[in-house]
Protein: Carbon-nitrogen hydrolase
Amino acid sequence: MPKRKYKISVIQLNLNDVAENNLKKCISWVRDAASQGAEVILLPELYSSHYFCQSEDVDNFALAEPLYSTSFVAFSELAKELGVVIIVPFFEKRMAGIYHNSAYIIDTDGTEAGLYRKMHIPDDPHFYEKFYFTPGDLGFQAIETKKGTVGTLICWDQWYPEAARITALKGAEVLFYPTAIGWHPKEKEQYGENQYGAWMNVMKGHAVANGVFVAAANRIGLEKYIEGTEGIQFWGASFIAGPQGEILAQASHDKEEILIAEVDLDLQENVRQNWPFFRDRRIDAFGDIVKRAIDK
Structure:
């Protein structure tokens, strides 16, 4: 019988360093999370490098790695050693000219339980991801692991209720969001509170609307590596929410932290029985959702 309860963890880190150092750091923090009882562990988006999408620079493609190379080997060995599931977001080189923002879901025996490629790709000031990443082609997935059935979406995906809904309908018990989001320093005073609040609220809404647990792992720290710019101040605030949007664990804006919370599938079932949103969906009336716009 599958477990009705298991512990999940998100790790919030400053990752403004070179790949080798970031890998060593993440391995150490995953060990710490596992020692505290975590069974499914999430790292932030693009864990192995600074957030290079602040500029459009072909030299940054050298940061990408082919499938099943450095990151997979290291975390596969670690997952098997510790008996945990690890979600590893990385910069994937698929072939010359095709790159993805991806995540391995590595099972407790070190095998690949699944691979997700970020579906929604932003293009905002200092978040120039369309220059680097081809949109994902693997769709939204619920991945069965030896600890539970999980769904992984990545950062910009978190703003789309359709992505959360489809992943939950496929059976995901938890929506994991590896993230790299922050403030433009000049905008923080005027817009920062609302921007951060919107980020929290939309994912809490996904938890409520779908009766799922939601876990988001963000970076912290000011990453300023382009001359003449103020960089991005990553706002941290990683969190885990329950199926009614209740906050089970919350990180600070500026400290490296491990968050751990329990996924209780009996609680999830009870919530869905009392708030039967899936039952009452009018799927016969939703055809327009696949249109780019609904023209008058």
